[in-house]
Structure formats: structure tokens, C-alpha cells
Design a protein that fits this description.
The complex is a heterodimer of chains A (262) and B (314).
Chain A: E1 2-6, E2 9-11, E3 19-20, E4 23-24, E5 31-33, H1 37-51, E6 55-61, H2 67-76, E7 80-84, H3 94-111, E8 116-120, H4 131-139, E9 142-153, E10 156-162, E11 166-173, E12 176-180, H5 192-200, E13 204-206, E14 225-232, E15 240-243, H6 248-258
Parallel strand pairs in A: 1-6, 1-8, 6-7, 7-13, 8-12, 9-12
Antiparallel strand pairs in A: 2-5, 3-4, 9-10, 10-11
Helix pairs in contact in A: 2-5, 3-4
Chain B: E1 3-7, E2 10-11, E3 14-15, H1 17-29, E4 31-37, H2 43-51, E5 56-60, H3 67-77, E6 83-87, H4 90-103, E7 106-111, E8 113-117, E9 120-127, E10 132-138, E11 143-147, E12 164-167, E13 178-184, E14 198-202, H5 211-219, E15 223-226, H6 228-232, E16 253-257, H7 263-266, E17 274-279, E18 292-295, H8 298-313
Parallel strand pairs in B: 1-4, 1-6, 4-5, 5-12, 6-11, 7-11, 14-15, 14-16, 16-17, 17-18
Antiparallel strand pairs in B: 2-3, 8-9, 9-10
The chains are: A alpha/beta (262), B alpha/beta (314).
Chain lengths: 262, 314
């Protein structure tokens, strides 16, 4: 079983997240691997452990700081880490990012075929959930997205796909791109031995040239969408907090009635 | 004139309310047509779509469930459209992505609004748990925009017309993916969570007792939500979970009962119009974003609030 997990470097949820020049501000100090990617790493490790053989790659695209995302994946137990680091990628939209990831995945796949690419259900900065689909189309592989469970046997992957109005069981032949939800598993914690090993583990770094991507086809100039303005929203004004001493419910009702909300 | 297509969300042959919001927005961009995938619209649905400005209802009845099939059907129905509006659901985001890769369109999802500026679509969104406003320009000639429910007030057209029903020539593509079983989630009574104008949510502080939360939701004409804590405890099903990875809601009123307001929860509700919170802990983060907060037990506060509202209504 050979699996590649895509991971993203995102700002920490508890930090003061912001935009700089139309892009999400990402700094090494308050960023890490997207939390939902932990579920993807966990799913990959569990499949390899169950199969008793195989290996897991972690792949990220981004500036120098993004290496922290694959470093985290190494701490969790993946065997190989790849970082596509090229200034020309900056400002890419989801389609540009998918093109770069797909090219890197093809390079790994050409050396020794992969069975699966596993991703998280969304990145907690943009939350668009578009990348897994774009990746499946770029690779021309099966698309199995929003999986709350994943089984692989005899060259076929089967997922439970949880939608608001239905739970589907979907099957597709390998190779497949699978996105797993945060219901799929409980990610493990890194152990001390792996944390120490991850510090010095080799990380493969590729430029766009290494993976055969024309820099003009990605980045800000190729993006189909551009953030033209970003500003912090003003805090809510006139906030009121009362302590219930027997009249709290009445006060709440009055507030709703005054505002025409009840 | 800009040609705008609106993908209809429908349940049991009826049009879901966010589609009427999308048609209202579509009329500010150009002349809308509605696209109905799967099944057939009844006469009432067709009349309603016409009332909100759709000149046509393009129908593809037999469409597979997988994103590749839905995207192919939407593409077949919208080859003349400059702008395609969909409701920003998980499935529609996947469909939009696939269609955009076929057509070269630019995509914005989770948008709160859209307008034409110098012949290009510009959208507005809130991001980072609704702490930032973002404006995005679509550079491509064609645009697909995913709209959040409750971001546009649905208003019928000034001159409502009768929409013509037009069948779409479409054959399901061969796909690698096969849906081998479908288990329907039983529909709750009332409005679905994502579309509800009022959401009353309960968290750890309910201790698993949702009676008061449900009663207040019913009284206010809203839907019942929950925090991740509560769904993890099994107190209420996962479909009720409000949060970044559950349902994102933007109702006019959000009432958080016994919910501390962890960042994952806030990310799913912080863009709500008015936020009200009841919590025992005065330091709960939910109070930082609440317009009105009561520090107290929901088992004391909610019954009194319910009685007061009922009494005032007579």
C-alpha cells in the first residue's frame, strides 16, 4: 500500500489571522499543519498498518515556512516528506495549487505507483473544500470525497460519504483521491521518538522545474480569482452581558422582543 | 445582457428558500434561468421560480448522484451562461470545481453577495470565523459563485413572468465512482439548519436535555443546532452540528445555550445577524461575540424567556 497525503501550512486557529496583499498571512511563528490534515495522515497510517506493508508520503506546496507542515506529518509517522518550494507558486488559486500538487504526485507515482492520495476535508483557513475534487480531475483518478470511513481491498476503495440529507456508500477503483472528514478517525499524538527523528529527517525539496510545471501556468497571474480587498470586521458594538439573579430570562426575552426577533 | 443560471436546490419537488434568495441576487446581475437537476419540478415549483424572475426552468431529470455526473448535467444546461449561481453546499462546491475545470470559469464559494463591476463578477465573503471581510474579483470570463443561505433577502420580481420548462439534452457520463447504497437522513420538521432564519443551539450545558432548546427554537420558528461536544456525546445527531466542519449558519438570530464558544464552533456561526448566549461560565468565549449574554443556567433562563415571549404575544 503506497499512499500520499497532501498537507497544508495554515495559520493557527487561535492566532490573530489576517491578510497581507490579498493573501492569507502565514508565518512560521503561528502556523502549522492544517488541523484537518491530521485526519488524512491518520487514515493513511492506519491503512498501511493494517496492510502490514507500505509507505506514506506527505506533500506540501508553499514558501519556506510551509516545511513545518510536512515536518508535523513526519512527527506523526509518515516515512517521506516532499516540499514544493517555488516563488512562482505564490498567489495561486485552487486550480493552480491542484496543478502543482498533481505534477508532484505524478513524479512520485512514475517512480513507483501510488494506490491513494488522501487529503483533509478542508483547510481551516480558506474552508473551500475544493482542492480534493480539483486534484482528482487533474490526476484523472477516482474521486471519493467527504469520507467518514474508508476501506480498501482488491484494488477498490469504498467510502461512507456523509451528506446533510443522506449517507452514501461509494466505491471506485484505485488509484483514488480520498478526502476524509474529522469524523473518520481520531488522530494520534506524535511520540517523543518520532518528534526527535522528524527534526533531522530528510525532506525532498522540488522546484516547479523539477516537476515539469510551467511557472506561467500557476501563481497570481494565472489565478482565475483575485482577492482585491480584505479588511477586519468591526467588533460587535453595544454588547450587553447580564448575570441572572432571577430576571435573566425576562431580560433575554425583552432584548429579542425589542429587536423584533421574537 | 448577462446570462445568469441558478442551480435550484429542491426537496420533495419543492424549491428550497436559498434558491429564491439566489434568484433575487441573479436579477441584479442579468436575466436568470433556473436549472433543475434530478426529478421533475411540479407546477407550483415552476410558478414560484417564475415569480422570482426565472425565464426558463431547464430540467435534466435522470442525473447520477456522483459529482462528475452532476457537473456534466449542470454544464449541459448552462453552456450559454456567463454567471452560474449555486448554493454553497459541500456537494455544490465539488460540482462547481469540476465544471470550472471543464469551462475555465473562476469560482468563489461561501459568498455573501455578488455584483458586476466593469463586466467582471466581484463577490463579498466573510472569512476567518467571520472576523474579516473579503472582496474577490473573478478574472475569468465565466464565473461560478456559491452563495451562503440567508445572505440575500428573497423578493419576488417586479414583473413576475411564467417560466418556460425546457428539457436539457443530457446523458450521464461513465464515471469510475459508483454509489452502491444510499441511506436517507430522516428530515427534521421545519426548516433545515443551514437555511433557518433562527437557530437555537445547545451544547455541553444542556447535559443532553434538548427539551428547552427545542421549545425555544419552535417558538421562534427556528432550527435546532448543537456544538461538537454534544454530537460527540451522542446527545443529538451529527446533522445538527454547527461549526467549521459541520454546518455553517448565518441566521438573523443565533441563540447559543450552554455552549462555551470554542473557535471551531464560532467559525460556523459568527457571521449570524444577532448572537445571544446563555452560559453558566462568565468567562466563556461565546460572550465575546454575543450581542446579548446572560450568565446563568439555561434551565432557569430559557423557561422564563419562553414564558415572557408567550405572555407578550398573548
Amino acid at each position: 500500500m503506497r499512499i500520499l497525503v497532501t498537507v497544508k501550512f495554515t495559520p493557527d486557529l487561535q492566532s490573530n489571522r489576517s491578510f497581507t496583499d490579498g493573501a492569507v498571512t502565514r508565518t512560521a511563528d503561528d502556523g502549522s499543519m492544517n488541523e484537518l490534515d491530521e485526519n488524512a495522515v491518520e487514515a493513511a497510517l492506519q491503512l498501511v498498518e493494517a496492510a502490514g506493508e507500505g509507505e506514506v508520503y506527505a506533500l506540501t506546496v508553499g514558501g519556506p515556512d510551509a516545511v513545518a507542515a510536512v515536518r508535523k506529518a513526519l512527527q506523526l509517522g509518515v516515512q517521506h516528506a516532499i516540499h514544493v518550494n517555488d516563488e512562482a507558486v505564490s498567489g495561486s488559486d485552487v486550480f493552480g495549487t491542484a496543478r502543482v500538487l498533481a505534477a508532484a504526485i505524478r513524479k512520485v507515482n512514475d517512480e513507483d505507483p501510488l494506490d491513494l492520495v488522501i487529503t483533509g476535508m478542508a483547510a481551516l483557513d480558506g474552508l473551500t473544500s475544493m482542492l480534493p475534487t480539483a486534484l482528482a480531475v487533474e490526476l484523472d483518478w477516482s474521486q471519493l470525497t467527504l469520507a467518514s470511513s474508508l476501506d480498501v481491498s482488491d484494488g477498490v476503495a469504498t467510502i461512507r460519504r456523509d451528506l446533510p440529507d443522506a449517507h452514501e456508500t461509494v466505491t471506485a477503483p484505485l488509484p483514488a483521491v480520498v478526502s476524509v472528514t474529522d469524523e473518520a478517525n481520531k488522530p494520534r499524538y506524535p511520540n517523543f521518538k518520532l518528534i526527535m527523528a522528524a527534526r533531522t529527517a530528510p525532506i525532498t525539496t522540488w522546484s516547479l522545474g523539477d516537476i515539469g510545471v510551467d511557472p506561467v501556468s500557476v501563481g497570481a497571474l494565472a489565478a482565475r480569482t483575485t482577492v482585491i480587498d480584505a479588511s477586519p470586521r468591526p467588533a460587535r458594538a453595544d454588547r450587553v452581558v447580564v448575570t441572572d439573579t432571577g430576571e435573566g430570562g425576562t431580560a433575554l426575552a425583552e432584548f429579542l422582543l425589542e429587536r423584533g426577533l421574537a | 445582457m448577462t446570462a445568469v443560471a441558478v442551480l435550484v436546490e429542491h426537496r420533495g419537488g419543492e424549491v428550497a428558500r436559498p434558491t429564491l434568495e439566489a434568484l433575487t441576487l441573479a436579477r441584479t446581475l442579468g436575466t436568470p434561468v433556473a436549472v433543475w437537476l434530478g426529478g421533475e419540478p411540479g407546477p407550483r415549483a415552476v410558478a414560484q421560480l417564475g415569480e422570482y424572475g426565472a425565464t426558463e426552468v431547464r430540467v435534466a431529470s435522470e442525473v447520477g448522484r456522483v459529482p462528475a455526473a452532476l457537473a456534466a448535467a449542470l454544464g449541459a444546461a448552462t453552456d450559454d451562461a456567463d454567471v452560474i449561481l449555486v448554493i454553497s453546499t459541500f456537494v455544490n462546491k465539488e460540482v462547481a470545481t469540476r465544471l470550472a475545470l471543464q469551462t475555465g470559469a473562476g469560482v468563489v464559494v461561501d459568498a455573501a453577495g455578488a455584483e458586476l463591476v466593469d463586466g467582471r463578477v466581484e463577490t463579498t465573503q466573510t472569512v476567518f470565523a467571520a472576523t474579516w471581510n473579503v472582496r474577490t474579483r473573478v478574472n475569468a470570463e465565466r464565473a461560478i459563485v456559491g452563495l451562503r443561505p440567508n445572505t440575500t433577502q428573497a423578493v419576488p420580481a417586479d414583473a413576475p413572468g411564467a417560466a418556460a420548462v425546457v428539457p436539457v439534452e443530457f446523458t450521464n457520463p461513465a464515471t469510475r465512482e459508483a454509489v452502491v447504497a444510499v441511506e436517507a437522513v430522516p428530515a427534521e420538521e421545519g426548516v433545515p439548519l443551514a437555511e433557518a432564519p433562527v437557530v437555537v443551539s445547545g451544547g455541553r450545558g444542556t447535559g443532553g436535555d434538548y427539551a428547552l432548546v427545542r421549545e425555544l427554537a419552535e417558538l421562534l420558528g427556528g432550527a435546532v443546532g448543537a456544538s461538537r461536544d454534544a454530537t460527540d456525546e451522542g446527545w443529538i445527531s451529527h446533522e445538527h452540528m454547527v461549526g467549521q466542519t459541520g454546518t455553517t449558519v448565518t441566521p438573523a438570530l443565533y441563540v447559543a445555550c450552554g455552549i462555551s464558544g470554542a473557535v471551531h464552533h464560532r467559525g460556523g456561526m459568527q457571521a449570524s445577524g444577532t448572537i445571544v448566549a446563555v452560559n453558566l461560565d462568565p468567562d466563556a468565549p461565546i460572550f465575546e461575540i454575543a450581542d446579548f449574554g446572560v450568565v446563568g443556567s439555561l434551565f432557569d433562563v430559557l423557561p422564563q424567556a419562553i414564558e415572557t415571549i408567550k405572555a407578550r404575544r398573548g
